[in-house]
Amino acid sequence: MFVGLGSTATAHGDVLSEKISQALRTAGVRGVVQSGWARLHCTGDDILTVDDVPHAWLFPRMAAIVHHGGAGTAAAALRAGVRQVPVAGIVDQPFWAHRLHGLGVAAHPLRRVALTAEDLADAITSVTTSAYQLRSQHFSQLLADEDGAARAVGIIAKHLESRSTMEVLDGR
């Protein structure tokens, strides 16, 4: 189980660390906790706190990913094909958290400001004992099969062509 809140800057890192440690123990899972901007520092025999680790390497090795709902972390977890537990805070994080849940790859989003160890443990248990993994693997394969760069070039080229045609028709 990976737990990381990425670029979440908060003065409540100590409180979050305790909640995360308790949730992992209650759920009965081992954890790799990334300290991040929240300066998480979880304790326990089955918990390892780390600094920066490449998500592309680590995520495929995890049973689930608990994260802040940031677009980059969400995308890395989708590419890895691993189920997720979003703990959203600000800006775009609630949007991505709800989108992941809607896709069926993540538990119902939790709000960081209202997070309890019990809610997090329940979400971890729920996501690790359900069909979320099949959906996660499905979307991982869709992402692997898509040539995003070629598709983007095609869309841009089509837009430029239609714009050039309009300029010719307008006499510019």
How does this structure look, described?
The chain has 7 helices and 6 strands. With 172 residues, the protein is of the alpha/beta class. It has a 6-stranded parallel beta sheet, sandwiched between helices.
Broad structural category: alpha/beta
Q: Which stretches of 5+ consecutive residues score pLDDT under 50?
A: none
Q: In DSSP terms, counting alpha (H) and pi (I) runs of 4 or more, how many helices?
A: 7
User: What quaternary form is this?
Assistant: single chain
Q: In total, how many beta strands?
A: 6
Radius of gyration: 19 Å
Distance between the termini: 59 Å
Please state roughly what percent of the residues sit in beta strands, choosing from under 5%, 5-15%, 15-25%, 25-35%, 35-45% or over 45%: 5-15%
Strands of the biggest beta sheet: in what spatial order? Answer: 3-2-1-4-5-6
Shape: elongated
Main β-sheet description: 6 strands, parallel
Helix share, percent: 40-55%
The mean pLDDT is 91
Would you list the SSEs in sequence order as H and E? EHEEHEHEHEHHH
